[in-house]
Amino acid sequence: MQRRTLVTCGLPYANGPAHIGHLRTYIPADLFVRSLRKQGKDTTFVCGSDAHGTPIVINAEELGVTPAELVQKYHDHFDETFKSLNIIFDKFGNTESDTNHNRTTEIVNTLIAKGYVFSQSIELAYCPTCDRFLPDRYVEGVCPDCGAVARGDECDQGCGKHLEPGEILEPLCKICKSKAEYRVQEHFFFKLSEFKGFLSDYLDKLGGTSNARNYAKGWVEGELHDWCITRNLEWGVRFPGHENLVVYVWVDAPIGYISFTEEWADEHGADWKKYWMNPGGDTDIIHFIGGDIIYHHCIFWPALLKGAGYTLPRAVVASGMVKIGDKTFSKSRGYVVWVNDDYLDKGFHPDLLRYYLASYTSHTKELNFSWKVFQEKVNNELVGTLGNFVYRTLLFAHKNFGTVPDGDIDSEVVEKIGAAKDAVTLAFNEYEFKRGIDAAMNLAAFGNVYFQSNEPWQLIKTDAPGAGKVVRNCIQIVKALAVLFEPVMPVTASAAWAQVGMGAGLDGASYDEATVAVEVGQPIPKPAMLFAKIEDTTIQEMEEILEKRVREATKKKHVTFEEFSELDIRIGTIVSAEPIKKSKKLLKLLVDLGENRDRQIVAGIAETHNPDDLVGRQVVVLANMQPAKLFGVESRGMILAGGSDSGGAILLVPEREVPAGTSVA
Ligand SMILES: [Zn+2]
Ligand SMILES: [Zn+2]
Q1: Which of 123, 250, 404, 574 is the most exposed place for a label (fewest CB within 10 A)?
Q2: What's the pLDDT at 2?
Q3: pLDDT of residue 540
């Protein structure tokens, strides 16, 4: 019995439009699915919108719409955008569906029945002004682990740790900006700690990319805390028996993978249980995700599945992050490229972006998006190598023969095609998409050399059958290229396929078609070029759009003189400095700011500065910085320093010594 494969993609959050960062995961996943099908594997591909969680509720409140309306809008947007890029899911569902509500309720009830859920009274951030509890994104504060500014559920700007309710320090209400307090309430927890041994074994065997496995193993080797799976929200899947609680979004979002499979199975007369309630059975579940949600997919998710008795995923494939123009991706700072506004609506072909994103670098590495590199890859590789070979071959064949001419296929050509086919298949199966695409592109480069060195344009004058043989070999290579590139560029590959007289139906063709001899006498129509060069002016225009976006985002952040005057910046003299236990980065300083008492300030300069060398030095201090506790040590102020990724902190110092407390403006 043939094994079946279920491929899923991390769910797009239905709270904003698609950007290039999303595609880093979806394009390779679609490529992978197409490649499995070319190997004759029984493959199903599901995804859907993630409809729940606090950011959607907050955004909907701000826009004056219901969460359901907001979700529907972006659900339709993603559905359409994916189709425009030929990312074709068998099912694109929505976690707000009845199926997902029902499946989530069933799984939570099963976990409760098996004793994996317990209740506990915990202290939660509560805003007395708004008179409500503040789940997840409703609260911000300080990460208890690294001291960075963090959101209620995640240390997104610091160490990346998932934060449990009640863990965040110095909580502030996001709605009214006032100080939150802690109040006790009963919540429900999943006994994640009981799954430590299971997870450790599971991760050892987990397939996919090593970044996912290794990152998760690091977390499992540390302390695994039980996981709070309820929230005080209206929007979401109701926690069974509790009207005021919903399950945490990271419970019902991955359950979407199951409910979307159920919905697909319903529509196609298949049995979803063969996929999800078949542990040790003949189904391989493979998750494609972004590198930022490894924790959820490699720790929470397998433990939930194990606890509820469902099939465990065989592999997790995590893509590297996306940078824009060498800067960290950031919507608020303008470092974003929108899929519709900046790409599809500008008339760029979807295949070019598919090619660029899948072939730029290894799947797990960081991808630095640049319009310049996009242009270079299109012009040099697609136009210069692949497009050039296909066009010169077919134009010559059409003009001189009109059909596929007779002639034996050279053993060298057979070998090259066979080797390329094997290399492409193996690389794609190993999630090495760049390696596979490079192997296919090498075959095109070989085709160019073969055409050039056999000089059919000379041969045709003296030896027409000899020229015909060269042409037939080249057409065979074109046919193979169409097959091998179909997973990467489905539209263009189908065009090439049609140009060698194969008609439609490339999607259904297997990799083995690459070596099946193209039939003599098959008509060769007048070819059209597969790719067009991208002009410098086009790229300049695109770069200007990005620059303008960044400028406008920066402008929005301009501060008035009044706002600046609110900063109390002073020169201080360091009186003492000592390391903080358990922290590699932090020093505890006492600084004379010309006040009655020296200020205690925690500074992240331990890696670059020796405490003893600091005593007596003058530094620049933001004196009215919001007080915070870092590693349990109170900090009242911030030492100003320049910083670089490589060089560490560079302290700002006055030009000459001044009295402690001298103000800066
Ligand atoms: Zn942190
Ligand atoms: Zn409030």
Answers
A1: 123
A2: 80
A3: 96
pLDDT of residue 557: 60
Say which DSSP state 377 is in: I
User: Which of 59, 123, 617, 513 minimizes the C-alpha distance to 331?
Assistant: 59
Superfamily designation of domain 561-664? Nucleic acid-binding proteins (2.40.50.140)
What pLDDT digit, counting tens, does each position of 516-558 carry? 999 999 999 999 999 999 999 999 999 999 999 998 888 766 6
Ligand showing the shortest atom-to-Cα distance for residue 132: 2
Which numbered ligand comes closest to the C-alpha of 585? Answer: 1
| Cβ atoms within 10 Å, residue 524 | 25
pLDDT of residue 312: 97
Fold topology of 4-94+252-325: Rossmann fold (3.40.50)
- What single letter denotes the amino acid at residue 291? G
Residue pair 129/171 in contact by the 8 Å Cβ criterion: no
How remote is the CA of residue 170 from the centroid of ligand 2, in Å?
Answer: 14
Question: Which residues belong to CATH 3.40.50.620 in the chain?
Answer: 4-94+252-325
Correct CATH for 105-231 of 3.40.50.720, 2.170.220.10, 2.60.120.280, 1.10.10.10: 2.170.220.10
**Separation of CA 629 and ligand 1 centre (Å):** 13
Residue 260 to residues 43, 103, 323, 614, 632: CA-CA distances in angstroms?
A: 14, 10, 31, 60, 45
Fold annotation for 326-558: Isoleucyl-tRNA Synthetase; Domain 1 (1.10.730)
Distance of CA 427 to the CA centre of its chain: 21
Rounded CA separation 605/147 (Å): 13
* Å from CA of 295 to ligand 2 middle: 30
Give pLDDT < 50 ranges for the chain: 645
What's the 164 CA to ligand 1 centre distance in angstroms? 12
Looking at residue 556, its pLDDT comes to: 64
Contacts of 607 (CB under 8 A, 6+ apart): 584, 585, 648, 649
How many helices and strands (H and E) does the chain possess?
21, 28
Sheet holding 227-228, edge to edge: 132-133, 117-127, 181-190, 227-228
Distance 226 CA to ligand 2 centre (A): 28
How far is the centre of ligand 2, averaged over its atoms, from the C-alpha of 132 (Å)?
Answer: 8
Separation between Cα atoms, residue 631 and residue 617, nearest integer Å: 25
Q: Which helix (H) or strand (E) holds 633?
A: strand 633-635
User: What pLDDT, in 10s, does the model give residues 57-75?
Assistant: 989 988 999 999 999 999 9
- Burial annotation 271-287 (CB, 10 A radius, 16+ → b, else e): ebebbbebeeeebbbbb
pTM reported for the whole predicted model: 0.83
Q: At 227, which helix (H) or strand (E)? A: strand 227-228
163 alpha carbon – ligand 1 mean position (Å):
9
Q: How far is the CA of 71 from the centre of ligand 2 (A)?
A: 25
